[in-house]
Amino acid sequence: LFHHFSGKDELGYAVVEEFLVPAVNHWWIQPLAETEDPVPAIQGILRRFRNHVEHETPESGFVFNGCPVCNYATEMSPLDEGFRGRLEALYDEWRDAIAGALRRGQKSGTVRRGVKPDEEAAFLVACLAGTASTGKVSRKLAHFQSCYRLADRYVGALKA
What burial class does residue 57 get, using C-beta atoms within 10 Å of its C-beta: 0-12 exposed, 13-18 middle, 19+ buried? Predict the structure, then answer.
């Protein structure tokens, strides 16, 4: 595989663009693209992802290896501007999808008026990234499940 790229950085950039961006698009951006009732939509994403992780083989799954997006962000962003820029754009798209859905929810009356969509989106993404990082260290499915249940409950509190 390596021989198809001009160097290891190009291979890494391809991983971000060809695997990580589509994964975030699949899990978050597409499901939130048109919803006007984002609270149950976000809760559904959280529950589907939790179910997905619960059925993985532990040694090759999310709990053991962590989140690929978070791993790249923490390991490569400080070392290479190309990675940092690509990952920043990915996180921006993720947050924008959540914030946009929350704004549409406010307009349709399904999200509380006092909610600040950009702040809520940033907080939720940070919570999920933190869950992935601390879960990777603990290697305990129960830690991951607990954090995702609390994220689900938190999102529920945004409902109008």
Answer: exposed
